[in-house]
Amino acid sequence: MSAVLDFPVKPAVRPYLDAFAENAGEPQWLREWRRRSLNRFAELGFPSRRSENWRYLDLQPLERAPLLPRRCPPAGGAAALPADASLGIPAHRLVLIDACISPEFSGEAEPAMPGGARLGSLAAALAEERETVRAAIAEGGLAGPLAALAAASFTDGFVLDLAPGTAVEQPIEIVHAASGAPASLHTSSLINLGAGSRATIVETYAGAGARYWRNDVVSARLGHEAQLTRIVVVEEGEAAIHTALFDARLEKGARLDGFVLLLGGSRARQEWTVRLAGEGAQCRLDGAFVVGGADEANIVTAVDHAAPGGETRELIKGVAAGRGHGAFQGRIIVREHAQKTDAHQLSRNLILGRRAVIDTKPELEIFADDVKCSHGASVGDLDEAALFYLKSRGIPPDAARHMLIEGFLREAAGGVADVALRDYLLRRLAARLGRLEE
Fold it and tell me: What are the DSSP E strand ranges found in 309-433?
């Protein structure tokens, strides 16, 4: 269905509008929501480097050679996953293949979910007309163009809904697999944690084969004193483009612990926006990226302190080799009435080689006067004195460099409290460093 619009549309947007098709089986409100979302995308077009928020990532390949949405594949479709992508510990497992829930592969290591916890398909929740899901979608907003396109085109996603006081002890493992078909894969997911509830989610994005584009949106709402740990590992195919937005709202006393690890994809961007809406809310966002070849990786964060007594800690580390380009953009806002805020942000980076580039842009916007806030950034090469010391102890030069790079990045994962999950992240990191072009 080609949309009829009352404003000019950029040529790069037109193929996505023409490819849009309504699902007659969906409720009328959802079809109208999708149309409004599509119009919003048509109005804004693809973000470009002229936008400050997107200056470090080039999406022109999506404009020159469109990757159009596809319907869910037949059950049992093949997917490419790293051989050791599984957490390897008891977990509630949900697998999406080409942006659609796969019952065949889900639940391989699934213990029983506790009472008061619901985990499942977004498409199924919409078919059930669950009012909480409808309200969450309507609340999501259409501020950004790629989020709007995801709202118009998503095929599925996951929903995690915890009743007040519910604790999910085992990690919840969400695997987003791409079979390799040249297409765009749009997903939308919802996380709702009731007061005093807690959960840990580990999301892995993986694929191989042909060029594809993954565009993912996750919205999270944390009630009074709820706790969410969310870990994201991106290991897309070599030619893949990955864009993702995580939007979270924290009520009084809620806590969010986040960790992002960008290891694969020709262009990968993880954006996290967090609003500390309740007094005493806490947020920890750590992450790392490793880029080589001509790849690009961006971690973008925006933490909005809108209530008193909030706390934020951020540590982002990056390594770039070859002609790789990495970037971190982090913004912390402290509103006028958010007194007693304690917020600190640090970005540290290593450049290996003359053609690699890392940009780092930490920002503070402070409108309150009784706060403790700081930020810092550094970009440099390996410590020559440490390298000389290791080589003087008989360690070969390549092994010594590898040890220093891995040691540099390990600190970013130090904030992950669960030892098994931290070990999993360090395994993925070590595997990537073993392939790093220097």
Answer: 311-321, 325-334, 342-352, 357-366, 372-380
